[in-house]
Amino acid sequence: MDGFRFLALVGSGTDQLVNDFETKVTSLTATTTPSAAGTGKVPSAFHIPHQEQIKGWYTTVENFITEQGVTFALRFLAAIAIFYFGRMLARMATKLVSEVMERVGTDPILVKFGANLLYSALLITIGLASLQMLGVDVTSVTAMIAAAGFAVGLALQGSLANFAAGIMLIVFKPFGVSDEIEAGGQTGSVEEVNIFNTILRTNGNVKIIIPNGQITTGTIKNFTAQRIRLIELKVGCGYCDDLKEVKAFLEKLVRSDVRVVSNPGPAVAVAELADFSVIFSVKCWVATREFGDVRSSLLERIKQGFDEQGFTFPYPSRDVYVHQSAPNVSSKAA
User: Fold this and answer.
1) How buried is residue 72: exposed, middle or buried, by Cβ count under 10 Å (0-12/13-18/19+)?
2) Are 12 and 76 in the same domain?
3) Which among 142, 237, 254, 329 is least surrounded, fewest beta carbons within 10 Å?
4) More confident residue, 74 or 311
């Protein structure tokens, strides 16, 4: 309280300081301005403006510090402590909930979404508690936040649509993290499903961010949703080749690959009699994770086998006939 006593002493001596200042100014004016000398008054230009108002402000501040300063300081420190330690507890609670959800086998996308939602809700609650400790009317603040949210919602209708689409993706789970999908006109592996967008990573290591609204309003192809996947190849041979030999070769080649699933087994059949070739349809089932490798390997082995067996890969050809007219006899006689 020594500081408050000092301020009180300073306040009580304000009048004396002002009187001394006016006396000095009067003496100075008397020596420089003859018209003002001997009047005993300070010219209006040298008066301290709003002296009474300044003293009133000082008294108000002094009373506030004396009566409410300590209480306000304690409330302020308590509000800071609530926000600081509350945020720490919110992080710990969010981490604990995430670990529990992961242990029970919850989808990683749902775990991340739930953790973010829980942390945001706890942070808002902690902020309101801190404001209430400072004496702020929380009801008014909540009403202001609701009104601002309504205005922002009208301005961001597209973002709200993406938010609703994100909720649908998380609830219905048409795909998960690491799934290979085609959605929104893009193809890639799913990295994240956020509230407003979904992040894909292409085979060329390109990061693609797609708004969730474009995904839910279009067709979604999930290439890794099933355990096995069908490979279908179109292989053409010439009309001069023996079809039975070509078919037997293709069946043997496909069945010899240990990565091909035996049930359902592979199938080879004539699919089309094209203009220049006979088209065989080669179908086999493989594990989804090996789809690309097996397909590439089969194409390479088919080309090598055709070369070894003497089968032909026909290509479009065109016969050109040149007709020459008979020589003009009359022109030669001339």
Assistant:
1) middle
2) yes
3) 329
4) 311
The answer to the question of residue 201 being in a domain is: yes
The DSSP 8-state label assigned to residue 52 in this structure reads: H
Tokens linked to 115: 């953790």
Show the DSSP H helices in 41-156 as ranges: 51-64, 70-103, 108-133, 138-155
Q: Which two tokens stand for residue 220?
A: 């979604």
- State how far the Cα of 311 lies from the Cα of 247, in Å rounded to an integer: 11
- Write out the DSSP string of 230-263: EEEEEEEE-TTS-HHHHHHHHHHHHHT-TTB-SS
Q: What is the pLDDT of residues 48-72, one digit of tens each?
A: 556 667 777 777 776 666 666 677 7
Tokens representing residue 295 in the block:
């397909």
Domain that holds residue 241: 228-309
Tokens 């070739």 locate to 277
Q: What is the DSSP letter of 45?
A: G
Q: Find the length of the chain.
A: 334
